[in-house]
Amino acid sequence: MILLTAAVAVFGLVMPVVRGTSARDLKHFKNSIWYIVYITFLLGMTYVGSDGALTLVSFNIATLIVAVVSVLVFYPLDVISGLSQRLTVADYMAE
C-alpha cells in the first residue's frame, strides 16, 4: 500500500512535465497536495490501528483520531484549496 501511495505521488509529479505543464495544471496539483497527505494519514492510521500490523491503537480510539483530525485539519485545508471559480468543460477543451 505504501508503494502504491508513492507511485501515485510520483505519477502526479511526473505527468504534468511529460504532457507539458500549464499554470492550470500546477494550480490543480497544488490544490490536491492536502489530499495526498490525507490518504497518507489514513494509511498510517490503518497501519497502527487494530486492523493494521502494529495494533497500537484500539478501533474506537483510532476512529476518534481520524474523525477529529479530518474535521479540524483536512476539512479546512480542503475548503482553503478550493478553486475560486468553477471550471467547465470548455476550460479543459481550450488547451
So how many helices?
4
Relative helix content: over 70%
- Largest pleated sheet: none
Ranges where pLDDT stays below 50 over 5 or more residues in a row are none
Question: Based on DSSP secondary structure assignment, what is the total number of beta strands?
Answer: 0
Taken as a percent bin, the fraction of beta residues is under 5%
Kindly name the structural category: mainly alpha
Give the H and E element order: HHHH
Structural shape: elongated
User: From the alpha-carbon coordinates, what is the Rg to the nearest angstrom?
Assistant: 17 Å
Describe this structure in words.
There is one protein chain. This protein starts with a helix and ends with a helix. The protein is built from four helices and no strands. The longest helix is centred in the middle third of the chain and has 26 residues, at 23-48. The chain is elongated and about 50 Å long. The protein has 95 residues and is an all-alpha fold. The protein has one domain (2-93).
